[in-house]
Design brief:
Elements lengths: L2 E5 L23 H9 L4 E5 L12 H9 L3 E7 L30 H9 L5 E6 L7 H6 L2 E4 L7 H9 L67 E8 L9 E10 L5 E9 L12 E10 L4 E9 L20
Parallel strand pairs: 1-2, 1-3, 3-4, 4-5
Antiparallel strand pairs: 6-7, 7-10, 8-9
Keywords: Hydrolase
Protein name: Periplasmic beta-glucosidase
GO molecular function: hydrolase activity, hydrolyzing O-glycosyl compounds
């Protein structure tokens, strides 16, 4: 790779989050700075802001498109901006306490920017620098690589450059689900059985359905989702026994194998569902997780413990109770 385009309203600014001390680049490393420092003189970096987070002005998109055309790959940094505690910023905040949006789509002309850069035919990576999830159906459908960085602190630019260039293998999982649109809210992963429609017939304009006539209630990315530069296989999943008493602890074991070519970390997650119960319970609930580091082709047996008391709960009495059934 000889050249790279670094584009977007969050490419050359710091985002420390709400109630922080500064919005000044002198107090942190921006993505543009981090990438330039990592590649040095070996790779040409073409930068263009493209658009603002808080404006519908598209006049800067042409410059961003030209930067992409002159590069081997384009990285587009979009998302939100949160107010610093000292409240000095050239642009208004779009995320944070007391900062609400009527639409959960990317603000301003950010979607237009992504579409225009994608139309160049160059490989595109979208990086979300934000304090909350956004509805990004076009990004999910058309962009082959998406990275959620959130607000990563003073060294955000250094860390994102390390991940983008393979020095660090990403291993995070989404802490919430991403909705398809504002109309798809809420998108709890642990919803009740009837929360996503009765008929279970998702639709489209080619094949209208019920519940949502022209859509599916599914999220873009569900809680707990996250990819890596390597791949993992879950093998021989088992529990220590089939029947448990109220004060028992469930022991879950799984053989985890790194089947890729790069060392990496995987988060093993255990979800529980009460198949038939006297009170309505969620379709699944996360009850245990752990992160495991593996070398290429390495296999390890991973153990997780779940006290029975954490999977039985009566909503009326607000107390844990024992229930007979299948989980």
């Amino acid at each position: 790779m000889r050249s790279i385009a670094v584009i977007g309203p969050n490419a050359d600014c710091v985002q420390f989050g709400d109630y922080t001390w500064s919005k000044s680049k002198k107090d942190g490393v921006t993505p543009l700075q981090g990438i330039r420092k990592l590649v040095g003189k070996q790779v040409k970096v073409n930068y263009a802001k493209g658009c603002s987070i808080a404006s519908l002005d598209t006049s800067g998109i042409d410059e961003a498109v030209e930067a992409a055309r002159q590069s081997d790959v384009a990285i587009v940094f979009v998302g939100s901006s949160s107010a610093a505690f000292v409240r000095h910023s050239a642009e208004p905040s779009t995320s944070g306490e007391g900062i609400d949006l009527n639409d959960i789509a990317l603000t301003g002309a950010q979607n237009d920017l992504i579409r225009a850069v994608q139309a160049t035919g160059k490989p595109v990576v979208v990086v979300l620098v934000a304090g909350k999830p956004f509805a990004m159906p076009y990004v999910k459908e058309e962009i082959p690589a998406v990275l959620a960085q959130w607000y990563a602190g003073e060294q955000a630019g250094t860390s994102i450059a390390d991940i983008l260039f393979g020095r660090v293998n990403p291993s995070g999982k989404t802490p919430f689900s991403f909705p398809q649109s504002t109309g798809h809210l809420p998108v709890y992963y642990n919803h009740l059985t009837t929360d996503k429609g009765y008929y279970k017939e998702p639709g489209s304009y080619d094949n209208p359905g019920r519940d949502y006539v022209f859509s599916s209630p599914a999220p873009l990315w569900v809680f707990g989702h996250g990819l890596s530069y390597t791949t993992f296989d879950f093998e021989k999943v088992s529990a220590d026994k089939q029947h448990y008493h109220p004060f028992d602890t469930i022991q879950v074991a799984v053989q985890l194998k790194n089947t890729g070519r790069m060392a990496g970390k995987e988060v093993v997650q255990v979800y529980v569902r009460d198949m038939v119960s006297s009170v309505m319970t969620p379709v699944k609930q996360l009850k245990a997780f752990t992160k495991v580091a593996l070398r290429p082709e390495e296999t390890r047996e991973v153990h997780l413990s779940i006290p029975v008391s954490v999977i039985v709960f009566d909503r009326q009495s607000r107390q844990a109770i024992s229930r007979t059934g299948h989980f």
